[in-house]
Specification:
mainly alpha
Length: about 130
């Protein structure tokens, strides 16, 4: 059997030979691996920072969009109210169709009968006075 001391020394000798042969490559690989780990850590930090920044911007844009929606809703309500008021005023201010029809009939009768301009004007005044509220 081999002497345990000799086996231990042989193991150490093999490790020394392995370190001599592969040592520089292993150290280079270890350095590269550590550099990749550092780069990965920096990239993860940058990704986390950008994610937080994006979340902040999303929140800000959502608030702005809601504000614009509210503003649009108010503007729409204002326009609708103005349109209703304008429609109400036009309905109140317009000449009634019946009155306008009576005026045209009277005007036509006056023209047909050869009436004078003064008669036409007085005829126009009469129906408006008759149909006024």
């Amino acid at each position: 059997m081999a002497d345990p001391k000799t086996a231990a020394e042989a193991g150490k000798e093999i490790d020394r030979i392995r370190d001599i042969v592969f040592g520089p490559q292993m150290r280079e690989y270890e350095q590269r691996f550590q550099a990749v780990q550092r780069d990965l850590g920096r990239l993860q930090e940058e990704l986390d920072r950008l994610t937080a920044q994006l979340a902040d911007q999303d929140s800000h844009q959502t608030k702005k969009l809601q504000g614009l929606r509210d503003e649009m809703r108010r503007a729409d309500d204002d326009l609708r109210a103005e349109l209703r008021e304008t429609t109400r005023q036009l309905a109140a201010d317009k000449v009634d169709r019946v009155t306008l029809g009576d005026l045209f009939i009277e005007l036509g009768n006056q023209l047909k009968n050869g009436g004078k301009l003064g008669d036409l004007l007085s005829a126009l005044d009469e129906p408006s006075e008759q149909h006024s509220p």
